[in-house]
Amino acid sequence: MKSNCLTTISLVGLAFFAPFLTSCRRNTSAAGEGKAALTVSLVSPISTTWPECFAVSGDVSAWQESVIGAEVGGLKLEEVFVNIGDTVRKGQVLARFSEETTRADLDQAEASVAEAEANLAFYRDQAERARRLSGTGTVSREQELQYDANEKTGAAKLASAKAQFVNQQLKLRYTQVLAPDDGLISSRTATVGAVLSTGSELFRLIRQSRLEWRAEVPAERLARMSPGLEVSLQPVGTPAVAGRIRQISPVVSSDTRTGLVYVDLPEPGPLKAGMYVSGQITFGDTPALHLPESVIVYRDGYQYAMKVDAARRIHQLKVTVGRRQGSQVEVLSGVALGDELVASGGSFLNENDRVLVVAADEKQGATNATAAKETRL
C-alpha cells in the first residue's frame, strides 16, 4: 500500500512539472541554435613577395689562424707579454727568450770573422808577392800554387765566419717573439722559465681578428649558392649577425653529403671561434601567401585555420605553413585569397560552431570593457 502511494505521488509530481521541463528544454535548444560560441574578428590571406631563405647550421671559425713558434732552441723563456684574448699589432713583441748565450755566441762569431779577415789578408799578400815574382826563379811553381790555395782557403773561411756571424745575429733577433700580423691571441702555451726546442708552439693568432662562418649545406642546395649572397646568423639570445658568402667548397663530404659554404663576418659581434650557430641564406624575393601567426591553430600535431562562411559557421581547414617573417607566417596550402579566417582565438572553436563577427577594433574594445568589469568585481 505504501509503495502504491509513493508511485502515485511521483506520477502526480511528474505530471505537475512536465510543462516546465518541456519549456526549459525548448529554451536550451533555441539558445544552442542561436547563440554564438565566440566573438571574433576576421582576416584574409595576403599575397606579397618575401625573401626566399634557406636555414642551415655551421661552425664559426678563424678566417686564418697563425701558429707562432720558437725559432731558436735550447733557450729559456724569460718573459711573456700577452695572454689569450689580447689584440696585438704586427711586429709587437709577444715574448722574449734569454739573450746571454746568444750574445756570447755572437761575440765569438764576430771574433772569428776578424780572425778570418786577418788570415785572408796575410794569404793574399803572399799570393800577390808570388805572382809578381813568377817567372824569375825566386819562387817555385809549387810555392806559387800553395800561396794561391792559401788565399782561396782564407777567403772561404772568411765567408764561413761571416755566415756564422749572420746566423748568430738572426738567433739574437729570434730571442724576441714578434706578432706576424694584426690579430687576436686565441691560444697561449708559452710558460716563463721553459726551455723549448726549435718550432715549439707558443701562441696562436687569429689573423686580423677576422672570423668566418662555415655553413654545412646539403649537396642538392649547393648549385643555388653563389658568392655575394646575404646571410643572417641567429645566435641564441643575441641580435642577428650579417654576413656574405665568400666562397663555396668544390667538394662534398662523402660521410655527410654536405659541402661547406664560407661566409665572411665583417662585424661578428658576440660570435666567437668554435661556436655552432644556425643561420639563413637569402636567395631572393618570391611570392608568398601569408597570414598573422595568431590565425594558425595547432591541434593533434597539425596546423589549422578556422574559416567563417556566410552563415557565420566555422570550418576547420588543415594548412601547411612555410616561411616566417615577424608575426606573419606563409601558408603553402589549405587556404586561398578571399577566405575569411578567425584572426585569433581559433583554438576555442570547433567545426560548425557559430560565431559573432566584429571588427578588430570593436573586439578589442569589448575585451577591454570585460576586463574592466572583472576588475571592478
Any overview of this molecule?
With 377 residues, the chain is of the alpha+beta class. The protein has 4 domains: 34-49 and 288-372, conserved putative lor/sdh protein from methanococcus maripaludis s2 fold; 53-63 and 208-286, Efflux pump adaptor protein, beta barrel domain (Elongation Factor Tu (Ef-tu), domain 3), CATH 2.40.30; 64-91 and 180-207, Beta Barrel (OB fold (Dihydrolipoamide Acetyltransferase, E2P)); 99-174, Helix hairpin bin (Helix Hairpins, Orthogonal Bundle), CATH 1.10.287. Helices cover 32% and strands 36% of the residues. The chain has helices spanning 2-34, 100-133, 141-174, 219-222, 360-376; strands at 38-40, 42-43, 46-62, 65-69, 75-80, 87-88, 93-97, 176-178, 183-188, 195-196, 201-207, 211-218, 230-233, 241-248, 258-265, 276-292, 297-299, 302-308, 314-325, 328-333, 341-342, 355-357. The strands form 5 sheets. Strands 3-12-15-14-13-16 form a 6-stranded antiparallel beta barrel. Helix 2 runs antiparallel to helix 3 (141-174). The radius of gyration is 45 Å and the shape is rod-shaped. The two termini are 56 Å apart.
